[in-house]
Every structure is written in structure tokens, then in C-alpha cells.
Amino acid sequence: MMPETATTTRIAPQPMDVTTLDIVMGLTGAERAVALYVSDMPSGRRRHSDEQVRAWIAQGVERLGREETARWGAFFRGYRLLDLSGLVTVQIQQRHEQRFPKTGRLVAADQQAANSVYGDRMSEETRLRNHVAEVDGDCPCRGTRRIRMNLEEGCDSLARMCPVHAQDAIRRMARA
User: Fold this and answer.
1) Nearest-CA neighbor of 166 among 148, 137, 140, 144?
2) In whole angstroms, what is the distance from residue 34 CA to residue 141 CA?
3) d(CA 23, CA 25)
């Protein structure tokens, strides 16, 4: 005689909304931040479920459209690169503030987007274009990929690479 077999009931994994996840995985971090910014996401700093964040991202993409979300995302990334280097001009700052007038909301959207990138990852195609950045206005490099820096009177001027337009060269140097 066989002893009774103990059985446990397991809950089958619930199927994920593939369409929404595909949309999210096809967006860069900056594009996700833009989509969240224009969505119905609350502006407060609270933790939301992954499913809810995905739904807001999809909603934001639907509102702006895929191409406009990508364009705004490239401008947001370009602004961030210039800001980290202290190179944002008045014109670029004004255009950024026109596009994203609520700073706190943008910070919250960016944080949720970063969590989304960590949790949901990106498709390989998206990962390869994650570095795309543009400047909405006149870049300090004026298209030369170099920004002249004048330190003091009587000193020779120096030049630095533009963090937006010379990204590939900067990355190659960092790997070397």
C-alpha cells in the first residue's frame, strides 16, 4: 500500500499584459520618464505597483504619440547631460521649463522610470539607442562637438567635449 501523497495547491503565474510590457520595453529611460510625466500618474512620491507604472507609461505614449515621446525623451536626455556638466544655456533652460513646467513631477516621473528600467529592462534594440540625446536650442558646442572654456584673463582657452554631441568619443575614451 502506498502512503498518501501530500499535494500543495500552487497558483499559476498570471499572464502579463504583453502589449503593455512590449510598449514599456521599447522605451528608453528618458522616454519612460516623459510618458509618465504626461500620464495620469500622481505627482507625489509614492511607490506604485509595476503594473500601474506600466499602464501610466502606455497611457503617456498614447497621449503624446510614439514619435513625440521619443523626441521629448531625446531632449530630456540632452538637457540632463548638459545640466550635469553645468552647460545649460538660458535658451535651453527656457525650452525645458516650457516642456516640463512641474519640476517635482518630472523628478517623480524620472525616479519611477528608473525603477521601471531596472524591473522591466529594455529590448536589445532600445538598449542600443538608450544614449540618444538632442538639444532643444543652440548647443554650447555650436555643432563642433567641442566647447571652448575660458578660465582666466591671460590664460589660453581650453576646449572640452560636448556631453551631447561627442557622447560616442567620450564613451570610447572611458573604455580605454
Assistant:
1) 144
2) 25
3) 6
Q: Identify residue 27 by its one-letter amino acid code.
A: L
Task: Please tell me the total number of residues recorded for the chain in this structure.
Answer: 176
Read off the pLDDT of residues 67-122 as tens digits, 9 standing for 90 and up.
Answer: 999 999 999 999 999 999 999 999 999 999 999 999 999 999 999 999 999 999 99
What CA–CA distance (Å, rounded) separates 32 from 54?
9
Q: Specify whether the CB–CB gap between 162 and 139 falls below 8 A.
A: yes
Full residue range of the structural domain in which residue 150 is found:
139-176
Q: What is the reported pTM?
A: 0.81
In this structure, the strands spanning 146-149 and 158-161 are antiparallel
Whether 122 and 70 map to the same domain: the answer is: yes
- For residues 77 and 133, membership in a common domain is answered with yes
What pLDDT is attached to residue 151? 65
